Amino acid sequence: MAVSAPVLEIDHVVKRFDSFTAVDGVCLDVRAGEVVGLLGVNGAGKTTLMNMVLGLITPTSGTIRAFGMDLSKHRMEILRRANFCTTYAALPGNVSVRNNLLIFAGLYGVKKPKQKVAELLELLEITKLADKPTGQLSAGESTRVNLAKALLNDPELLLLDEPTASLDPDIADKVRKLVRHVQKERAPAILYTSHNMRDIEEVCDRILFLHQGKILASGTADEITRHFKEDDLENVFIKIARSGDVETVGSGC
Ligand SMILES: Nc1ncnc2c1ncn2[C@@H]1O[C@H](COP(=O)(O)OP(=O)(O)OP(=O)(O)O)[C@@H](O)[C@H]1O
Q: Does the keyword Transport apply (predicted)?
């Protein structure tokens, strides 16, 4: 079977803030239908990398391509086919959940926006919140509204930055299943960050460990735990966080 071209191609990307290097020569590909997990301690560079993929900040060097196009030249074409969920992007607080989603549906040119919004409210189990002002939601409710926003345009490239961060275990489990469902139904390329190892093990096909802006390890959860001679991913995470100078496995470049 022919292997599809990557939807997202990150090639030797560096991001410096003055003299500080937040992302240090990262290479990574994500293919259609694949969920790639980005793991790393606080400050490892995950959000900086995500923000570069969204075109919110510009790489100091290196290239980012999506759908075969250079992000620096085709940002709008790429972003029309992509979407994201992050807890940092608050939706206008005085607008109801439904109207917020309808506004975004309009921006993305969604056909039958009312039907699409109703379907997503149902899928995320937030129909009862539809008329509530977004600013009055709990953190977990806001995350689910953000997830609904992220699925409005049936994105072919989906960036999920800690989508289960403030969710209770029941809803977090539902979100993991939802990500798998979306993957199966629509096969987008998904880049997924989380500090929850269960998330990563359950949802991600492949994992990259980012440490001080560099990829230290890449592979499946099994390959990585075996390589580091640990019982599980959580112990690998702790080992990397505490030593930092562990041998690099499969940097991706
Ligand atoms: N605009 C900026 N100016 C200066 N330094 C920045 C800027 N944005 C991020 N950094 C620094 O870059 C590093 C990486 O930050 P980033 O937010 O990408 O980490 P992260 O892996 O997402 O962390 P967390 O798990 O805490 O969300 C941090 O040391 C941060 O302080």
A: yes
DSSP string, 141-206: HHHHHHHHHHHTT--SEEEEESTTTT--HHHHHHHHHHHHHHHHHH--EEEEE-S-HHHHHHH-SE
pLDDT for residue 1 is more than 70: no
The verdict on the CB of residue 213 being under 6 Å from ligand 1 is no
With a 6 A CB cut-off, is 190 part of the ligand 1 pocket? Answer: no
Q: What is the dihedral of CA 72, 75, 81, 84, to 10 degrees?
A: 90
Q: Which residue has the tokens 């926006």?
A: 113
* Model confidence, pTM: 0.91
User: Where exactly are the structural domains of the chain?
Assistant: 87-154
Q: Is the CB of 44 under 6 A from ligand 1?
A: yes
Q: Each residue of 111-134: pLDDT tens digit?
A: 999 999 999 999 999 999 999 999
Task: Output the CA 137–ligand 1 centroid distance in Å.
Answer: 27
Instruction: Give distance in angstroms: CA of 217 to centre of ligand 1.
Output: 20
Per residue in 22-35, pLDDT (tens digit) is 999 999 999 999 99
On whether the CB atoms of residues 38 and 192 are closer than 8 A, the answer is yes
